[in-house]
Amino acid sequence: MSIFFNWCEPGIARRLRRGFTLVELLVVIAIIATLIGLLLPAVQTAREAARRSACSNNLKQTALGFELHESSQKAYPAGREGSDGGCPAQPAMGENTSSFVHILPYIEQKALYDTYVQAAKAEPVKGNVPHKLSPLPFNETPGAFRCPSSTKPTSGTVTDGKPGVGFGSYAMSQGHHGPTFGTGCMGKNLNTGMALYSKKIKRREVIDGTTKTLLVGEVLDCTQPANRFWFAIRFQDSMRSTDNPINTPWGAGVCLPAANGGANGAFGSPHPGGAMFAMVDGSVRFLDEGIDLTTYRLLGQRASAEVKSLP
Question: Which of 112, 124, 157, 182 is deepest in the core (most CB within 10 A)?
Fold first, then answer.
């Protein structure tokens, strides 16, 4: 018996030529595409859940910094260190430094805070602090002030003439007085929340309860305002209100006049459907963008004396 195949034998030739037909190949490709289509949303959902969890941890760490400041200094830091001279019973002019700067020693950023203190001491004009400090210590944004879902760079071009660095993802809650109440004292040192111009809130002043009062919330990625964590001005950068609904886009809703920056002061988030907030007690909640506006505005107040129901 010959050990060699007869390559001309019809059955063997047919078996050797057997492979995938075009139809079979297309079916396999379609199956693979379907599997990818099913898996991709699940992967994206898992990634967003991880980013949202990290964002929640950032807010918890930030709220803890405020709590430790209160324990040490017997008051929460002022939303803005000084006044702009526009309100009664306030200094003529003071620092524009935000409360995020003053909690730096309590979130393992003492070296950065010490650098700021030394630079501020060397600046004779308090109204120039911190935006005219040289060198400016806030070229980088601490990780605790940056949401993982944010796609905005930490620096860029701004239109107000101040340094475009240190962009963050969170802002303090000034209260429910927003652009509806104008540009004056009602939105500055007479607001209803935790972040006021040149006034430090004590725990006993939070009569609505620390579990039902907003402290810090997320802000939308946008060109303006710049969301600088170190600079404080009403309804912009590191200060926002509950006047406009959550996720109101920049330039929509009730806004300040263009001469005053055109801000709407809204909180917002890259997370779908709402935004993350830290309460005064340090707990973190996700508030739906469709939350009843009256309820939302009450949550922004520290002393409304109203019954609040958390959604």
Answer: 112
Confidence band (pLDDT; 50, 70, 90) for 287? very high
Q: At 217, which helix (H) or strand (E)?
A: strand 214-218
CA distance 228 to 232: 8
Asked whether 102 and 61 are in contact (CB, 8 A), the reply is no
pTM for this predicted structure: 0.85
**d(C-alpha 211, C-alpha 172), whole Å:** 16
Residue 107's alpha-carbon distances to 65, 67, 207, 240, 283, in angstroms, are: 6, 11, 27, 22, 16
Is the CB of residue 175 less than 8 Å from the CB of residue 191? yes
The tokens of 224 are what? 């303006």
Question: Residue 293: is its pLDDT beyond 60?
Answer: yes
Question: What is the token pair recorded at 97?
Answer: 């430094």
Q: Are 239 and 195 in contact (CB under 8 A)?
A: yes
Distances in whole angstroms, Cα of residue 149 to Cα of each of 169, 220, 236: 9, 11, 20
Q: Give yes or no for residue 1 having a pLDDT over 60.
A: no
Q: How far apart are CA 77 and CA 82, in angstroms?
A: 11
Chain-centre distance for alpha carbon 134 = 27
211: left (phi over 0), alpha (psi -120 to 50) or beta: alpha
pLDDT digits 0-9 by tens, 90-138: 666 788 999 999 999 999 999 999 999 999 999 998 889 999 998 899 9
> CB neighbours of 305 closer than 8 A, spacing ≥ 6?
207, 208
Tell me the three-class secondary structure of 28-64, residue by residue.
Answer: HHHHHHHHHHHHHHHHHHHHHHHHHHHHHHHHHHHHH
